[in-house]
Amino acid sequence: MNTHVNDSDIQQYVLERSVCDSVIVEHIHNCRDCMTRAEQYAVLINGIEEQEAPVFDFNVVDLVIPQLPVTKPAKSADRWVVLLIAFVIITMAGVLIYYFKGYLKGMMAGMTPMFTYLIVTTVLILLLWLCFDMFSRYRKQMKYLNYY
After folding, report:
1. Residue 145 and residue 73: Cα distance in Å, rounded?
2. pLDDT per residue over 37-84, tens digit each?
3. How far is CA 24 from the centre of its chain?
4. Which residues of 119-128 are buried (b: 16+ CB within 10 A; e: fewer)?
5. Measured distance CA(45)–CA(50) in Å, rounded
6. Contact, 11 vs 44, CB < 8 A?
7. Can you tell me the distance from the alpha carbon of 71 to that of 89, in angstroms, rounded to the nearest whole number?
8. Domains of the chain by residue range
9. SS3 (DSSP) at 148
10. Contact 135/82 with Cβ under 8 angstroms?
11. CA gap 83, 88 in Å, rounded
12. Do 54 and 30 form a contact (C-beta atoms < 8 A)?
């Protein structure tokens, strides 16, 4: 090997000699400069490991928390969104009933009133349940987005 071993290989030699390539180990053993650098890295690494972990002599949390700004809860426009959607749905249903009332009368004439009420009640319950489920998923997703 004509050139010296680079610093990362010497650090690997000092930290994990068993993982190091045999050519690098042989070069470090035969080259005085590389052996000196390896010894310097070993002293440096041992010195870092022997240092005590830094510890504050005061409570950082008690000093930092009062300085953080108090966030005000954001006003949500969810209520207006629900009212707008409800208004649009009711308006569309009214327009459809107005234009197709002749067909609806003919269709309902052959059915018993109890059956008609049962169908209308079922449709309304399903519609309300689906709208509530969709809105609750929307609120959950918005809550997740506000955390990021």
Report:
1. 14
2. 999 989 988 888 888 877 778 888 888 888 888 777 777 777 788 889
3. 45
4. eeeeeeeeee
5. 9
6. no
7. 36
8. 7-50, 78-109, 111-148
9. coil
10. yes
11. 9
12. no
Total residues found in the chain within this entry: 148
pTM of the model: 0.38
Widest Cα–Cα separation across the chain: 107
Crossing angle between the packed helical segments 78-99 and 101-109, to the nearest 10 degrees = 70
How many Å separate Cα 42 from the centre of its chain?
42
* Token reading at 63: 């000093």
Residue pLDDT, tens place only, 3-14: 888 888 888 888
Q: CB pairs under 8 A, 24+ apart, for 57-60?
A: none
Tokens standing for 74?
Answer: 């954001």
Say if residues 76 and 46 touch (Cβ distance below 8 Å): no
Between CA 26 and CA 1 the distance in angstroms is: 10
